[in-house]
Design a protein that fits this description.
Metallo-beta-lactamase, Chain A; 8-stranded mixed sheet; binds zinc ion
Amino acid sequence: MKITFYGVRGTSPVTQPDFAKYGGETTSILVEGEGGELIAVDAGTGLRNLGRDLEASGRSGRELLFLMTHYHLDHLMGLPAFAPLYREGTSLTIAAPRRKGRTPQTVISRIFSAPLWPLQIDKIPARIDFLTLPAAAAAPLARGGLRVTWAPLHHPGGSTAYRFDEPATGASFVFATDVEWGESTPTERKAFLRLGGDPAPPGLLAFDGQYGKTEYPRFRGWGHSTREDAAEAARLVGAKELLVTHHDPGKDDRTLAAAEQELVRTHPAARLAREGMTIELPGGDTP
Ligand SMILES: [Zn+2]
Ligand SMILES: [Zn+2]
């Protein structure tokens, strides 16, 4: 299994050069299975580069499962600029649980409608199917050799954590962005811990850590965790490695590097996610 982080910034994209090391694109990742399976998660601005890479490698015609954690704009605003949508032969399935009773088809169709975007959903050349998921996985969703399970997270309007298992290689990855761990109810925590532990602790956990613990009290209720919360969640599920993601758009490379140093001192298996980072599971990684 290979995971590429095309966007790790939270809330809003940033483009200044002193944000370039950790990256300014908002959340979008690609999970690739050994058998060439493709699963994208979230359509932040990082999705533009994800689409570019799929096109450059001739894979944009391959069936793509597209999971949405939720629809806050920083996770959605890259979708209209996803080049494979404008190519005949692209086939994708957009999947997510209902939000406020709305299916993925209802929400995504709204993005591709006047006055928000020039092209209506039925004029998009790609074939788009929609799949409404239950709030939590009753059974895994199979995609070739990959198995996907999920659970709800504490976040305003809701958010979903996804887990990817590849039984043939033993690789496992949990992606949990946009979660306020500190405000999570016992039921929400239990659901996340069950996801993290079933069938075994994950090789990698990517978890929201937008804030430092001293600044968090000012942002309580905004739906995000601290880096310390992320480390606690990683410890509780027994994750081998932790990547903290959803970096605050106000934090430049120097600030994030200092935060990362502090995190690594107390949690040696933790790092901050960087845009462009590729992780191979199980095993090592390449920058
Ligand atoms: Zn977000
Ligand atoms: Zn959000």
